[in-house]
């Protein structure tokens, strides 16, 4: 299984919208920030920020507001709500 297929399956399993993940990542890169930079600004670790950016873990509303402000995005552009089965 290729990494692209694994990523697609992971996104599907966690109900991740890849366009929103890419929007967050692209905005961060456009501003010249690394994940480590974001983590320092937010007062967290790079690993935690990475999981937040990839939407593997759900961030608090407060954290999402901070991320949106830093990246100059709207909070709604960061995530879709998780699917409830």
Overview of this protein structure:
By secondary structure, this protein is mainly alpha-helical. The protein has one domain (3-77): lambda repressor-like DNA-binding domains (434 Repressor (Amino-terminal Domain), Orthogonal Bundle). It is 60% helix and 0% strand. It has five helices and no strands. The protein has helices at residues 3-13, 18-30, 35-42, 46-53, 61-71. It is globular.
Secondary-structure blueprint of this entry?
Elements: H1 3-13, H2 18-30, H3 35-42, H4 46-53, H5 61-71
Helix pairs in contact: 3-4
What would CATH call the homologous superfamily? lambda repressor-like DNA-binding domains
Q: Could you spell the SSE succession in H and E letters?
A: HHHHH
Helicity, as a percent range? 55-70%
Number of helices: 5
* Low-pLDDT windows of residues: none
Using the coordinates shown, work out and report the CATH topology: 434 Repressor (Amino-terminal Domain)
- The tally of domains stands at 1
- Largest beta-sheet details: none
Radius of gyration (Å): 13 Å
Level-1 CATH class name: Mainly Alpha
N- to C-terminal distance: 27 Å
Q: Look at the structure and give the mean pLDDT.
A: 81
Notable characteristics:
85 residues, 5 helices, 434 Repressor (Amino-terminal Domain)
In short:
This protein is mostly helical and 85 residues long. 60% of the residues lie in helices and 0% in strands. It has a single domain, classed as 434 Repressor (Amino-terminal Domain), CATH 1.10.260.40.
């Amino acid at each position: 299984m290729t990494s692209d297929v694994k990523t697609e399956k992971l996104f599907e399993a966690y109900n991740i919208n890849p366009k929103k993940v890419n929007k967050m990542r692209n905005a961060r890169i456009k501003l010249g920030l690394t994940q480590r930079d974001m983590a320092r600004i937010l007062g967290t670790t790079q690993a935690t920020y990475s999981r937040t950016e990839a939407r593997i873990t759900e961030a608090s509303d407060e954290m999402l507001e901070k991320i949106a402000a830093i990246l100059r995005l709207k909070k709604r552009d960061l995530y879709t709500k998780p699917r409830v089965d």
